[in-house]
Design a protein that fits this description.
With 140 residues, this protein is α+β, with helices and mostly antiparallel strands. It folds into two domains: 72 residues, Orthogonal Bundle (Arc Repressor Mutant, subunit A), CATH 1.10.10.10; 40 residues, no CATH class. It is 40% helix and 16% strand. It is built from six helices and five strands; from the N terminus they run H-H-E-H-H-E-E-E-E-H-H. Helix 3 packs across helix 4. The radius of gyration is 23 Å and the shape is elongated.
Length: 140
Amino acid sequence: MSAEAEDLSEDEATALELVREQGQIYQSEFWKALDVSSRKGSRIAKKLADKGLVEREDAVHDGNTTYLIKPVIKDENLDFSLLMAGDMLSPFVGEEEVDARGDAFSQWIMNLVYEDPVIPEDEAADTPPEEEGTGAPPET
């Protein structure tokens, strides 16, 4: 569990998950989706904002003054490596229509297939080395 999640009550964690899933939500809809009172929903949203996990912007929704709640996305939480195959960026990035049978996509997939696997250090230490010259795992 992250340090961020450890500091949250169950209601706050559920609320943060809701905001992140929705991308943004009006506070007038937020408390209804959480099935809490408007007062409790307001307190939860304020606590999340105070912790820097969401932003609350003044807004008007259905003719009423409310807040628009948006998740705060920190750069350290983004993993752009998932878009990469070697030094090639995914052909899906920025394209509205992608040809799954096209050369760019095929080349990107082949780069993924032939990349060296990344083995976490703790798992690598547990893996027995292959016997020299045979290419086969040692027999037990």
